[in-house]
């Protein structure tokens, strides 16, 4: 297995900046959406009737249909982001943020001083897909707060990459590589 050709390290940071903005918006939408809404009408003065029983209500997400969960704006944006992560993982050459960087941004910049291995940023896309994907599945299952927590965690990672060039997924890749779990050639048999 040969090492793939290097990539401009500014490309993944550019993509991370756009992704961070989208994830921040998805987190906001998830926080104001059904994922964090309380069920019922809230606290109020209540004079029960003789045969009435008080049943406290929980989270609204537990009492709505699957279709209502799937049509939540935070869910829809997180789904689009997950699909973008998947696109970046499956076909990084045609992923929209990479294509935009190569065609519009990179020609205006000086050539990079060094190129980086494309495998850690690609692995990072997979980590983002897993994190957001878990949030999406748990949201559909009716778990309160799952979607905003997942999108906030992915936002944190994307923001660190965009603002400080610290790629958490890349660091995880390097740890797994040192442990011999990824990125090494298979021994000859």
Briefly characterize the structure:
With 189 residues, the chain is an all-alpha fold.
Give an overview in words.
With 189 residues, the protein is an all-alpha fold. Helix content is 57%, strand content 0%. It contains 7 helices and no strands. It has helices spanning 10-32, 66-70, 73-90, 96-105, 119-140, 146-164, 168-178. Helix 1 packs antiparallel against helix 3 (73-90) and helix 1 (10-32) packs antiparallel against helix 6. The longest helix has 23 residues, at 10-32. The two termini are 14 Å apart. The mean pLDDT is 89.
Spans of 5+ residues with little confidence (pLDDT < 50)?
A: none
How many β-strand stretches? Answer: 0
Instruction: Report mean pLDDT, rounded to a whole number.
Output: 89
Number of helices, where a helix is a run of at least 4 consecutive DSSP H or I residues: 7
Shape: elongated
Q: Beta-strand percentage?
A: under 5%
**What's the helical proportion of residues?**
55-70%
The value of Rg in angstroms is: 21 Å
Q: Label the structural class.
A: mainly alpha
Order of helices and strands: HHHHHHH
Largest β-sheet summary: none
Distance from first to last alpha carbon: 14 Å
